[in-house]
Structures are given as structure tokens and as C-alpha cells.
Write a structure and sequence with these properties.
single chain, 9 helices, globular, binds guanosine-5'-triphosphate, binds magnesium ion
């Protein structure tokens, strides 16, 4: 590696559901971070790496920033701000369809006050009339001293090339920090838990996904090369357990089947997945559960 290379951290920050994880996956061209239509899907920081020219860009997906209630929530929001703190540059991502809500303005003001390099990404432009986009972009650009403003659709890829070029040129000069082939540092155990949680977010409603956490208990490679994965799903309430299991076990079977298929594709091998649902009231206030979710416990 010579002096002409560039490498740096880029944090993706924003309100829940703005499309941060979709953007991370789009920019890296891989499924690294889970995506669902529900807010607060991402719970911890997720690294996604791409190479462009002589640059290695280390993207950091973060949990959406919201008003936290539980200990878990506080750890999530702290992880998001910590991501911004440690980054060379920050992308503030805004849902253009939703517009400049009070929480978006608050996040922009707080980010602006840090004096860091921030660029604005207006996302979901595929959902907005072209005529409405320009005034929105102008108003949004005035929220903080942004280095650049991008209008993209993380879903369709529209506008993403420009953003890739910008990031490749904007990260500081320096040697690559990860091997060239690496896409993430997410361990397979955590990936497995995340993929199961994604299915829970997709297949259950109301409080159930928020009252649930998933941990991989064992991950073993079999002689035939298949992965044998055992995961436990902790639920906060007995009622949630019944919903997750479903009539005659139908829901948990479907969650397992879809997660297994997805994991087999991502890990590129046969997967045997075993799920167990366990009641654990108060898990979202438990330091060990918070740490298992890839977070620092805010109480320490
Ligand atoms: N139409 C459209 N939908 C998008 C776009 N980007 C993301 N979405 C959708 O918006 C929803 C939320 O996307 P995520 O990527 O999970 O959002 P997030 O910001 O990571 O959300 P949290 O992790 O909950 O903070 C999903 O249903 C995505 O498919 C986009 O550019 N256009
Ligand atoms: Mg996310």
C-alpha cells in the first residue's frame, strides 16, 4: 500500500426508517445490514466496506436516533452518536418523503454543533415529485453547514454513483485498515441472529418485534460443510411467545424457514437452523442482553 491510497470511516446517521441500512447495502453492493419497513430495525453499529479506485471506505450503519425509553434504547442511541463521533465524515440521511420533521431538524442541529464534516443525503427521492424536491433540498441544506447535498434512492440506486465518487475522494489519505476482500467485520454468529430478527420484524407486529432479541447460542461447522446454528429468541412477555410460535408452531416455522434460506445464501453453504423461544421479562434492561446485541451498556 503506498501513500496514494485513502481510507476512512463514514457514519450514516439519521432518524429511524430513513433508509440508512438500505443505503449501506446499496453502497457496498451486499446485504450486510438488515432492512425492514419498521422503525428501529437496526440496533447496533454495522460496518460495511467498499473499494473504489485507490480508496477503501468504511461505512458505519447506525441505529436511528429517537427519544430513548428503555436501557436498550439508550444503548442504541448512544451507539449512533458514538458512530458519528468516531467517523472521519458523517452522512445525515433524511427520508425525503417524510420531510424535515422536528426530530430531523434536531439531529441536524446537534450534528452541526459538533463541527464535523457532514454531508446531507436526501433519500427515497423515488417517492417524491421532482417539483417538490428542489425546495425541500434547499430548505434541508440550510439546516447545517453541509459539505455536499445528495439526492438518492437507496432502493433503486438512483444518484448513488455520485455519492460513491464523493466518498472515495473525501476519506483521508492513508493505508487500508481492512483486507481488500473484506465486506464487513460482522461475525457469522451475529449475522445469524440478525437475519432471524429481520424475519421477526417482517412477520410480527405491534410490540412483538420490539420486545424481542435474538442470540446465537451455537454455531458449528459440520463435516459435510453445512453450518449448524442454534439461536434463542428472548421475549419480554408470555403473550409475545404465543404470537411468535403461532398456531401449531406455524409462525416460528416460517420465521425459521425464511431465515435459514437467507443465511444459506449469505454464507454460501447449507444451513441447519434451530430456534427456541424463551420468556425473559426485563431482558431489555439487562446488561448481558444489551452487550450480546453488539452494544455497550449505557449504565457503565
Ligand atoms: N421507496 C423507497 N423506500 C426505501 C428507500 N430506502 C429505504 N427504503 C425503505 O424504507 C424502509 C426502512 O429502510 P431501512 O434501510 O431499514 O431504514 P433505516 O434507516 O436503516 O431504519 P432503522 O434501522 O430502523 O433506523 C424499508 O422498507 C426500505 O425498503 C428508497 O430510497 N426508496
Ligand atoms: Mg437500519
Amino acid at each position: 500500500m503506498n501513500e496514494t491510497t485513502r481510507c476512512g470511516f463514514v457514519a450514516i446517521i439519521g432518524a429511524p426508517n430513513a433508509g440508512k441500512s438500505t443505503l449501506l447495502n446499496r453502497l457496498t453492493g451486499a446485504k450486510i445490514s438488515i432492512v425492514t419497513p419498521k422503525a428501529q430495525t437496526t440496533r447496533s453499529r454495522v460496518l460495511g466496506i467498499f473499494l473504489r479506485g485507490a480508496s477503501q471506505v468504511l461505512l458505519v450503519d447506525t441505529p436511528g436516533i429517537f427519544a430513548p425509553k428503555r436501557r436498550l434504547d439508550r444503548a442504541m442511541v448512544a451507539a449512533a452518536w458514538g458512530g458519528a463521533d468516531e467517523a472521519d465524515l458523517v452522512l445525515l440521511i433524511v427520508d425525503a418523503k417524510l420531510g424535515l420533521t422536528a426530530s430531523v431538524r434536531e439531529i441536524a442541529a446537534k450534528l452541526g454543533a459538533t463541527g464535523r464534516r457532514i454531508s446531507l443525503v436526501l433519500n427515497k427521492v423515488d417517492l417524491v415529485d421532482r417539483a417538490a424536491l428542489l425546495p425541500l433540498a434547499q430548505e434541508a441544506a440550510a439546516m447545517a453547514a453541509f459539505e455536499q447535498v445528495f439526492m438518492v434512492s437507496a432502493a433503486t440506486g438512483d444518484g448513488v454513483e455520485k455519492l460513491l465518487d464523493f466518498l472515495a475522494g473525501a476519506v483521508p489519505a492513508g493505508p487500508f485498515l481492512y483486507p481488500e476482500d473484506d465486506l464487513t467485520d460482522l461475525p457469522d454468529r451475529l449475522l445469524a441472529a440478525e437475519i432471524v430478527r429481520e424475519q421477526i420484524f417482517l412477520q410480527t407486529r405491534d410490540e412483538v418485534p420490539y420486545g424481542t432479541t435474538v442470540e446465537t447460542e451455537s454455531f458449528a461447522e459440520q463435516k459435510d460443510g453445512a453450518a449448524r446454528i442454534e439461536a434463542v429468541i428472548y421475549v419480554a412477555r408470555a403473550g409475545h411467545k404465543a404470537i411468535l410460535i403461532g398456531a401449531g408452531g406455524s409462525r416460528i416455522r416460517d420465521i425459521g424457514a425464511r431465515a435459514r434460506r437467507e443465511l444459506a445464501a449469505l454464507l454460501d453453504r447449507k444451513v441447519h437452523l434451530f430456534l427456541r423461544v424463551k420468556e425473559r421479562p426485563g431482558w431489555d434492561e439487562e446488561a448481558a442482553r444489551i452487550r450480546a446485541a453488539g452494544l455497550n451498556d449505557p449504565a457503565v
